[in-house]
Amino acid sequence: MTAAGKHQVSRAETSRRGGRPGRAGIRDVAAAAGVSITTVSDALNGKGRLPDATRRHVREVADRLGYRPSAAARTLRTGKSGLIGLTVTTYGDEPFTFTEFAYFAEMARAATSAALARGYALVILPATSRHDVWSNVALDGTVVIDPSDQDPVVSELVRQGLPVVSDGRPVGSLPVTAWVDNDHEAAVLGILDHLADAGARRIGLLTGTTTDTYTHLSTTAYLRWCERVGQDPVYEAYPAHDPCAGAVAADRLLARPDRPDAVYGLFDPNGTDLLAAARRYGLRVPDDLLLVCCSESTVYASTEPPVTTLSL
């Protein structure tokens, strides 16, 4: 046999033993660990009745050999894709790219890390209520950020039998599997008290028109605070997915005859929108106007002047 022929046989044998040359297969792990292929599979997948020592031994051998289970093989064996979806559906079919905002980008980064640590990959899906988009991707579950009170995507995913975790306490009877949330009421009350302690006498709010929990609870907390301290509410609401609408709402708020001397903005761009509006009206920040906005962005540390932010 020629050298070329021997090389071809060698490559074929390597392929039969586990795929690409130099990549360990499950048979290699079993041979090195001195156990069966079934034991390797059970040990790496947390199945079967194996002693803890055996599981540790198999995992150590697999790590040493650099063995990684085939995603395609796992899908065939378990019927699961290993994919977790993530999206913001509050804004429906609006052309809203949520990862442009620091809060959502940070959520995506953290969710990706958590998914990978557990053997899953994260798929970021568009903010749309079209069911065909969701049915075309095989998912094992979905994380939905700030769903609305009658969210059609959540309802459809639940109808398909998929687990849905909501980042945001569901409004009404939205049928999610589980949810996590911050104490938005306490956060808003803390900000308002802080502004009042700093000397503000008329505190305004920039809020949204959506029905997600964050917007609803934050706005409700503001209205209750105003009632408690005896201040007439001064606020403007706008569609938060529209970048131009935020600037218009900030301008309207500062153009009011009962103009506030402090403003809390619920959304990431509100700080820059309010700074621009303040300049147009000749207001000095913080001398004439105190500003706070909810944002994960570091840009507000370097604006002129810097803007205080609340991190969720």
From TrEMBL:
InterPro entries xrefs: HTH_LacI, LacI/GalR-like_sensor, Lambda_DNA-bd_dom_sf, Peripla_BP_I
Q: Key word Cell division present in the record?
A: no
Q: Keyword annotations for this protein?
A: DNA-binding, Transcription, Transcription regulation
- State if Coiled coil is listed as a keyword: no
Highest taxon in the source lineage: Bacteria
Annotated region Disordered: the residues are 1-25
Query: Tell me, what's a Pfam family for it?
Result: Peripla_BP_3
MF terms (GO), sorted A to Z: DNA-binding transcription factor activity; transcription cis-regulatory region binding
Residues annotated as domain HTH lacI-type? 24-78
Recorded protein name is LacI family transcriptional regulator
